[in-house]
Each structure stands twice: as structure tokens, then as C-alpha cells.
Amino acid sequence: MNRRLIRYNFSRIILTPSQLRNFITVLWSFVRWKLTGRYYPSKLPLIMMVEPTNFCNFNCPLCDRGSGKLTRPEGSMSPENFTRLLDEIGSGLKLLLLWNQGEPFINKKSSEMVRAAKERRIFTIISTNGSLLERNASDIIDSGLDEIIVSLDGANTETYHRYRRGGDFGKILGGVRELVRVRGRKLTPLISLQFLLLKHNLSEIADFKNLAADLGADRVLWKTVQVADAKMAETFLPSEGRFTRYSDSRSLKLQRVRYDCRRILYSAVVDWNGNVVPCCFDKNEDFLLGNVFNEGFDNIWRGGKFTRFRDIIANGKRPGMCANCTEGLQRLFIGKRTK
Fold it and tell me: What's the chain's Rg over C-alpha atoms?
């Protein structure tokens, strides 16, 4: 295990006093849920996904943004609004996922947002298509970001472009190399290359391992793919069971080890305009819970809409967005290869 991965794993479990107090309330919420069958939220979210922007420069066919299924307004969060959000919830927040729909670095203030989070000792991760790495490498490294996940999905130009439509394979590789060069001997960020397991790229798994090592990445994430319908399953879903999250490719039944939802006890998603939704599977804000900049996060977190949504889930009902949820999946990532 390399020293960056040691630092990464250690930092993920270290809690500030405020984060520790919040973690204890999460545990108590979990106990109460198991005893009563009802969801009682933690004092503050322990994990949050915040969307810097929902603009994107790619057209990936399985992404709601890339395929044109995303119907909500487009825009980017200002650093001032991001700071307002952190001022309200940041003391108990441990993990910040700084992406949702869209390419995070299209928001030119993304690295500034990371710095604001790191000032509050929040463990911060960004997932990116890698198209803007080269020009932003210095800012990314200087921001203190804990991990950057670069989605690549192919070991050569032809395979890469079958899914990452609008991307430039050579440019992405150049961006990763520049990120590694600028980072030098620093411990952060951990650089992870993500490989979506698709029908057409399984033959390149070994080549991708070698590519990641050649680029200087710290690890590879092998991620199973989500599909919305039988047509997309036929085009992209691997036929070999160990490379998919579905037990049946026709009905798209997921392989789960459990069926409950725990994330609504301790996490939420804030879109670029401050709209709060229960989780990242609510792409078009069908279950809009409120706007943090108009109502305040605590009023939403403990408010009537979120309470009613939690009750729906506690009673065993599953909205349509839950059909493809990764909560409790047997196979989301099939492995993480490190140096």
C-alpha cells in the first residue's frame, strides 16, 4: 500500500470533535430506526453531495445529463452560496462529494470550493470526466482535495469514444499526467482512474491496469454500469454476471444484499441552485424538499417534506427513482486495484 493510500484511508476515519458528535447522533438515529421502524434524522448530515454545476461538455449515453433526460434549469453554484451552505452545516460534515450532474470543473470556482471545505476539515472528493485537468492542475493540487476520480472507461481512443462522446482521449491522458507531475511528492490528492465495466471494453481490463500505472495513478476503480432500459442493456451491459449489478439483464433486477435505505438518515444532495433532494438518484428534483438559500438547511432537514419522504421509505414504498439505487448493492465496485 503506497503512502498516499495510507494517508487517504487514515484521513477518512479521523473525526473532528464536531464530526464525532454528529457521528454519534447518526448511530443513535440508526438504533432508533431499527427499534421503531421509523427514520429519525441525525442532527446534521454526515455526508453531502453538492453540485458545483450541471453543465457538461460530454454526451455520455447512460447519463441523464448527456442523453438529454435532465430537464431542470442549468447553472453553477457561486462560491459565496457554497460558503453559506458550509457555514450552516459544515461543522458536523465529514465527507463532501463535489459533483452530481455535470462536469465539476466547468464551474471555474470548484477549486475555491474545495479550499473552503478543507478549511473546515471536511474530507472532499471530486469525480470528473478529466477534460479540464490540464488547465486546472495547479489549482486542484493547491486546493487540498483528498481524492480526484477520473472517468476513463477505455485503454485506447476507439474504445474510449464509444461511451465518452465529446471527449478527447489523448487530452484526458495529458491532463492526468500533468496532475501527477504537478502533485510531485505531495500526498494529496489521491488520483483514481475509474473504469465503467461495459460490454465493449471488458477485453481491455489488463491494458487499463497498465495504462493507469504508466500514467502514475494511485488506483483503479472498477465500476458496474447503470442502465435505464432493455435497449441500453443490450448495447452496454456485460453478459458476464460478475461484471454487472443486475441479476437479470431483461428485467434489470439488481443484485442486492439488503433492501433498506440508510443514506436518508445522514445524507442529502444540494443542487447548484440550492435545491435539496433526498439523494443523487433524484436527477430532476421530483422530490424537491426545499431550497437551502431560501429556507435554511435545518428547516429542510427536519421539515415536513423530508419527514414525509422518510416515512414513505420506512413503510416499504419505493418511488421510481429507487429502482436503480446503489444502496445495498452486491456489486457496485467489483474491486479497487492499487499499486
Answer: 20
Domain ranges of the chain: 3-338
When pLDDT is averaged across residues 190-210 and rounded to a whole number, the result is 96
What is the pTM (predicted TM-score) of this model? Answer: 0.93
Query: CATH topology for 3-338?
Result: TIM Barrel (3.20.20)
- Terminal Cα distance for the chain, rounded: 7
Task: Provide the edge-to-edge strand list for the sheet that holds 95-97.
Answer: 290-291, 275-277, 267-270, 47-50, 95-97, 123-128, 147-151, 190-197, 219-224, 333-338
- Is the Cα torsion angle 301, 302, 305, 311 positive or negative in sign? positive
Positive or negative, the CA dihedral 337, 131, 64, 261 is positive
Assign residue 245 a region (left: φ > 0; alpha: ψ between -120 and 50; beta: otherwise). alpha
CA distances from 252 to 232, 260, 334 (A): 11, 19, 18
